[in-house]
Amino acid sequence: MPAVSKGDGMRGLAVFISDIRNCKSKEAEIKRINKELANIRSKFKGDKALDGYSKKKYVCKLLFIFLLGHDIDFGHMEAVNLLSSNKYTEKQIGYLFISVLVNSNSELIRLINNAIKNDLASRNPTFMCLALHCIANVGSREMGEAFAADIPRILVAGDSMDSVKQSAALCLLRLYKASPDLVPMGEWTARVVHLLNDQHMGVVTAAVSLITCLCKKNPDDFKTCISLAVSRLSRIVSSASTDLQDYTYYFVPAPWLSVKLLRLLQCYPPPEDAAVKGRLVECLETVLNKAQEPPKSKKVQHSNAKNAILFETISLIIHYDSEPNLLVRACNQLGQFLQHRETNLRYLALESMCTLASSEFSHEAVKTHIDTVINALKTERDVSVRQRAADLLYAMCDRSNAKQIVSEMLRYLETADYAIREEIVLKVAILAEKYAVDYSWYVDTILNLIRIAGDYVSEEVWYRVLQIVTNRDDVQGYAAKTVFEALQAPACHENMVKVGGYILGEFGNLIAGDPRSSPPVQFSLLHSKFHLCSVATRALLLSTYIKFINLFPETKATIQGVLRAGSQLRNADVELQQRAVEYLTLSSVASTDVLATVLEEMPPFPERESSILAKLKRKKGPGAGSALEDGRRDPSSHDINGGVEPTASTVSTPSPSADLLGLRAAPPPAAPPAPTGAGSLLVDVFSDGPAAQPSLGPTPEEAFLSELEPPAPESPMALLADPAPAADPGPEDIGPPIPEADELLNKFVCRNNGVLFENQLLQIGVKSEFRQNLGRMYLFYGNKTSVQFQNFSPTVVHPGDLQTQLAVQTKRVASQVDGGAQVQQVLNIECLRDFLTPPLLSVRFRYGGAPQSLTLKLPVTINKFFQPTEMAAQDFFQRWKQLSLPQQEAQKIFKANHPMDAEVTKAKLLGFGSALLDNVDPNPENFVGAGIIQTKALQVGCLLRLEPNAQAQMYRLTLRTSKEPVSRHLCELLAQQF
Amino acid sequence: MIHFILLFSRQGKLRLQKWYTTLPDKERKKITREIVQIILSRGQRTSSFIDWKELKLVYKRYASLYFCCAVENQDNELLTLEVVHRYVELLDKYFGNDFGCWFHLMRFLSVLDSWSTPALNSGVPRLTALTPDFCLF
C-alpha cells in the first residue's frame, strides 16, 4: 500500500481504511463506521486537549467517511483549528476538509477567511499556495469578496515565488469566471501581460489562461499580449524536442502552452505589425511542415500532442481567413487526415473542414474531398463521425453539387441515427430550397423527406413547402400531381397527408383533367386516410373538403354526406365539430359566387427568411429544448391549421375551367387582405392552368382552348357590332404609361388571366380569350378602399398607327365605384393587321376629391392571335428552309432568368400560342413550335426553335416568319419569358 | 474549460465526479446517468469524442475504468485526452498497480482531484510541483 504507508504514518487511519475494505457487507461497513464516528466524537468532546497529530488523524477519518457517502455533522471546528497549525500536513488536511465540507454560509466562514488571510500574508510560498488553492476550490462569492482585491497584488508582486504566481493566476481566473464583477481591473492588468515573458513556463501557462479569459471583455487592455505571445510561440515551435525538459511531453515541446497561445491569438485579428505577422506566419508554416515529418515516437500520446497543436494552428488560420496559401495547405493536411486510420483524426478533420468550407479561399479546395466525405457518411461506424460528415456536406454544398449532396443525405437519412434525423431533415430541406434549380426537384426532395423520415419532419419544413408551392405558380401542377401519387402509397406518413390535403385543396383542380386523378378519386384517396389521422390533420382535411366543394361542384353531394355524418357533426373534438357544422352550412347556404369568394385560393405568402433556417439556428443554440414551442409561432400556421375563416377576404379563384364556364357569374377579384408586391395574386392563380397542365394530358391546351368558347349566346362578331363607341379622349390627356407597365405586360404574354395592376387604391384584374383574329377581354376594377371613386373612367387609347392595326371597342362603365365594390368592363378586340405596340389603358377617377390617373399597357400582344399549327418534321423543315432570308429570321441568345424546367418552358410556349412539335428537333432538349398569326388583313406563318443550355443557363431562341418586324417582335416578347 | 470530469466503471458505477460548474445535485445525477449510458453504449473503434448538448465529451477507457471530460466546443479535444492521460499517469505513479487500493480509494481521489484542479487547468501537470499535495498520508 504505497500511498497509505507514505508520509508520516497515521497508523490509525490506515487500520480504519483496511477495516472498511475488509467488510464483507454493507451492514458491516455501516457498523464499523458508526463505531468510528462514536470514537471520534468522544475524542473531540473529551476533556483532554488533542494534539495536532490526533486532530489531523480524526479529521482525515471524517473526510474518508464523508467520501464513502455518509453525512458528517461535526468536526468542522477541529478542521478550522488545523488551519492555524504551523505544520504543513496538518494545515493541508484542514484546508482539504474545508474545501470539501464547508459550505459558504457556514458560521465558520469568518474564522476560515481569517486563517486564509494569515497564510496569504505569511510569505511562506507553500502556505500561500494552500490558501490560494482553497480559495479557488471553494470559489464562492463570499471568498471572492474577501480576497479578490489581494490576489492581483500577489500575482504581480516582484518578490512572489513562481509557484505562488502560478496559483494566484489560476485562482484569479477561477474567481473571475465565477463572478467577474468582483475582480477589479487596474494597473495590474498591464503587468499581467508581461508575465508572458516570465522565465518560468508554469507561470506563463497560467498567465495565458488568465489573459485569454480577461481579454474577451477588454481586448484593448491586453492588446500588447499579441507580440509577446507570438514571440513565445515562435521560441517553442522552433525549439528542439529536448530543449524544454520538464515541459516536453512525449517529444513535443510544451503542447499545452502552445495550444493556449494559439487560442489567445484567436481572440484578436491578425497582427497589424508586419514583422510580428511575418514571424507568426513562419510559426504556422513550421507547424504545418512538422506535420509531414515522421513521428518521433509510436506512442499515441506523441501524435495526440503534436496534432493538438496542428489543429489549433489550423483553427487560427481559419480564424484569420486572410492567407489563401495557408488555408489551402490546411485543407490539404485535413484531407490527409480524412483517410487516417485513427478515428479521432478523421472526426477532427471533418470538423475543422466544416469551418474551412465557409472561407472563400478554401471552399473550392474543400469541395474536392466530396467523395471521401460521402464515403465517410456511408461507412463510418461512429455516429459522431457520421454527424460531422453530414455537417461538412452541408457546409460544402453549393449550386454545383447540391443535387448530389442532397441525394446522398436523403439516402443516409434512411439509416441515420434517430438522434440526428431531425437535424438532417432540416438541413436537406434548407439545401433543397437554397439551391433548387427547379422547384419540381425541390418538391420531390421534400416529399421524399416526408416519406423517409416523416416523424422528423417538423412543422416548419412542411409549412415551408406549402409556402413555396403557393408562391411559385410554375410548380403547383407538378406538386399536385406528385402528392397525389405519393398519397397512393398504402402507408403514408401523416405529414404527407397534411401536405397532400393542403395542396390538393388548393391546386387539385390542376390535375383534375386526368381521369386517374379526377375529383372523386382525389377525394376518396384523401378520405381513405382521414380516419387514421390526428385531430389536427383531420381538421385540415375538412378544410380541404370544403375547398373541393368549390373546386369540384360534382363532389359536393359526397362531401356534404361526409360532413353530415354523425361522426363529424357530433364529434367529441370541438374544433372538428365546429368545422363540420360550419362547412356543411356554408356549402348548403352559400351561392356558388359566395363559395368561390370565401374558399378562394390562399394568397401568396410574404417573402421571409426560411423558418427552417431559424429553427436550425435555434437547434444549434443552447436553448434547443424550447425549439418546438417556438415553432408553433410560425406565422403560416394559422393559415394552415386555423381553418378557412369565412371573413378572410381572399381573392376569388375558381379553377380555370369553372371560372371560364361561368365567366360572367364569377365575381371579380376582391382586394386581398394586404397588398402584395406587384399584385401577383391572381396572376399566380390563373396562370397555372396552362403552366401546370401539360404534363398530364396529351393535348391539354386544346381542351383548355375549347373551353374558351364564349359563354354568351352572341358571337364575337355580334359583340364587335356593339354600338358603344370607344370613348377615346385626346391623346394629350393620356399620361405616359407607368414605369412598370412593360414588366406587367410581360407577365401576360403567355397567359390571359391575372391581375394587371394593383396599388393601395385599385386592383385591375384581367380575363381574356382570343380566337383567330378576335378577342374579348374583361377588365375588373376593384376599389380597395372604403371610399367611393368618382368620375371613374377607364379608356383605351391607340397610340400611333395602332388605330389601323387593332380595333378595340369598349363598353362604358358606371362612373361611380363604391368602396369595396368592383366594376367590370368588356373589351372587344379585332386584330386588323400585325402590330408591335400594345394599346394603352388609361384609368382616371377621383378619390376623396383628388384626381387619380393611371396609364397601363393593355395586355394585347400580337401573339394572342396565334393559331397553333401541328405539322410533321418533314413539313417543318421544308417551311423552315423557305423562310431562309436573313431578315425573316430573328435570333436571340440570352441568360435564363427563371429556373430552366422543361415542363414550365413547354407550358410557356403553349401559353405563347404556338403548337409544340415533338420529334422534330434531333435534340430532345430543344423545343420547336409552329403557328399562324391571324389578322384580318393577312396571316403570318411563324416557326420557332428554343434551345436551352442548362450548363450555361442560357437559351437560344430563333424565330422565322414571313414578315420581318413580326419575327423580331415575337422574338423579343418571347425571350423575356424565360 | 473543463465543465466536469466523471470516472465510472464498465458496469456503469460512478467512481469519481468533479464538477467545475455549479449545478443542483438532481441535475448532476441526471447528467451522470445520461452520459454513462451514452458512453457505455458506444461500439468499438469509435472516436473519443461525442457531441453532447452544447458541450463535447472526451473520454477514454483505461482498463475497466472510463475517464470522461466535458469540455466546451472550441476546446482542444486531443489535448483534453492528454490531460486525462496525464492524470492517469499521476494516479498510476502514486497508487502503482495496487488495483485494490485503486478502486477503494477511488472516492478518495476526488480529494486528490480537488488538489490537482489548478494543475489540470494550467495544462502542464508536473509531478514535482504536485508532490507535497499528494503526500496526504
UniProtKB/TrEMBL annotation, chain A:
Q: Pfam families given for it?
A: Adaptin_N, Alpha_adaptin_C, Alpha_adaptinC2
Question: What InterPro entries does this protein map onto?
Answer: Adaptor_Complx_Large_Subunit (IPR050840), AP2_complex_asu (IPR017104), ARM-like (IPR011989), ARM-type_fold (IPR016024), Clathrin/coatomer_adapt-like_N (IPR002553), Clathrin_a-adaptin_app_sub_C (IPR003164), Clathrin_a/b/g-adaptin_app_Ig (IPR008152), Clathrin_app_Ig-like_sf (IPR013041)
What task does this protein carry out?
Component of the adaptor protein complex 2 (AP-2). Adaptor protein complexes function in protein transport via transport vesicles in different membrane traffic pathways. Adaptor protein complexes are vesicle coat components and appear to be involved in cargo selection and vesicle formation. AP-2 is involved in clathrin-dependent endocytosis in which cargo proteins are incorporated into vesicles surrounded by clathrin (clathrin-coated vesicles, CCVs) which are destined for fusion with the early endosome.
Query: What is this entry's stated membrane topology?
Result: Peripheral membrane protein
Q: What Gene3D superfamilies does this protein map onto?
A: 2.60.40.1230, Leucine-rich Repeat Variant, TATA-Binding Protein
Compartments, as annotated in UniProt: Cell membrane; Membrane, Coated pit
Residue ranges annotated for the Clathrin adaptor alpha/beta/gamma-adaptin appendage Ig-like subdomain domain, each copy included: 746-859
User: What GO biological process terms are annotated to this protein in UniProt?
Assistant: clathrin-dependent endocytosis; intracellular protein transport; negative regulation of hyaluronan biosynthetic process; synaptic vesicle endocytosis
- SMART domains annotated for this entry? Alpha_adaptinC2 (SM00809)
Q: Where is the composition biased (Low complexity)?
A: 646-658
- Quote the SUPFAM superfamilies the UniProt record gives: ARM repeat, Clathrin adaptor appendage domain, Subdomain of clathrin and coatomer appendage domain
* Ranges of biased composition (kind: Pro residues): 666-675
Q: What keywords is this UniProt entry annotated with?
A: Cell membrane, Coated pit, Endocytosis, Membrane, Protein transport, Transport
Similarity annotation: Belongs to the adaptor complexes large subunit family.
**Cellular-component GO terms for this entry:** AP-2 adaptor complex; filopodium tip; glutamatergic synapse; postsynaptic endocytic zone; presynapse
- Disordered: where is this region? 615-703
Q: Which GO terms describe its molecular function?
A: clathrin adaptor activity; low-density lipoprotein particle receptor binding; protein kinase binding
Q: Where does a 1,2-diacyl-sn-glycero-3-phospho-(1D-myo-inositol-3,4,5-trisphosphate) bind?
A: 11-12, 43, 53, 57-61
Chief localization: membrane
Quote the subunit structure annotation.
Adaptor protein complex 2 (AP-2) is a heterotetramer composed of two large adaptins (alpha-type subunit AP2A1 or AP2A2 and beta-type subunit AP2B1), a medium adaptin (mu-type subunit AP2M1) and a small adaptin (sigma-type subunit AP2S1).
Domain of life of the native organism: Eukaryota
Query: Which protein are we looking at?
Result: AP-2 complex subunit alpha
Whose protein is this, by species? Catagonus wagneri
Automatic annotation (TrEMBL), chain B:
AP complex mu/sigma subunit domain residues:
1-97
Q: How does it sit in the membrane?
A: Peripheral membrane protein
Tell me where it mainly resides.
membrane
Q: Name any GO cellular component annotation.
A: membrane coat
- Provide the alphabetized UniProt keywords: Membrane, Protein transport, Transport
Q: Of which family is this protein a member?
A: Belongs to the adaptor complexes small subunit family.
Places the protein is found: Endomembrane system
Q: What is this protein called?
A: Adaptor related protein complex 1 subunit sigma 3
Biological processes, Gene Ontology terms: intracellular protein transport; vesicle-mediated transport
User: In this record, what's one Pfam family?
Assistant: Clat_adaptor_s
Q: Where does the signal peptide begin and end?
A: none
